[in-house]
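Example 3.2
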Amino acid sequence: MSSIFWQFRNMKDREAPRPLLLINVVQTMADAGRCVRQMRKQQGLRIDDAAALCGVSADLLSRLENGAGSVRLDKLLHVLQGLGLQLVIAPSSAGLLVGQAGHAEPNEAAP
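Structure, written as tokens:
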């Protein structure tokens, strides 16, 4: 999993800078699980409380976080929504490049 900080460039000169977004480039379900676990822990939620909040079982959330077993897309979307995350699908050419060191870098040519 690679992470980048991205700041939108289409700001007017007089606007205060917007905070940088942390974007995780997910390539496997294990990557998605790490993102989910990180967000759950940042919110101070136990796994059973987070599962109840997201409308899924604690077993499913545990499997997701550990990258074990299959998790249906609709259940993944429930978990993401419940934790304040979202799935974004973009073409590979959208400006997120994975460098050789495994770190994603913003593409300077992207808007």
